[in-house]
Amino acid sequence: QVDVVESGGGSVQTGGSLRVSCTTSGWSFDAYSMGWIRQAPGKEREGVACITPGALSTNYADPVKGRFTISRDGDKNILYLQMNTLKPEDTAFYYCAVKPFGQACGNLVEWRTWGRGTQVTVSS
Fold this sequence. Notes:
By secondary structure, the protein is mainly β. It has no helices and 11 strands. The strands form 2 sheets. Strands 2, 4, 5, 6, 9, 10 and 11 form a 7-stranded mixed sheet that branches. Strands 1-3-8-7 form a 4-stranded antiparallel sheet, with no helix packed on it. The chain is globular and about 40 Å long. The N and C termini lie far apart (about 40 Å).
């Protein structure tokens, strides 16, 4: 059974930074592309970032390019999202997500599963 648990959310002011983490168990972490998706109140869920196995490539949504960095630690089975220069429009629930097996990061819309999420709030 795949278990995905996010942590590290919180509240910051505009321009601040946060790092959210995702721990996983019950599956082969290194075999899947993984990423982060988010959902703001009243809005649809959107893909934010993706990273392939071995961190060979990444993909970011346009609104976060240059501000967010996704990374993974294969030894600890942890996925990270470092978020800098945060804006109020980044406020959302952030979910750690897993791509279908064999899929890279060409799109940010197709995901196999995701966790329960962690809240990120950016105040102006």
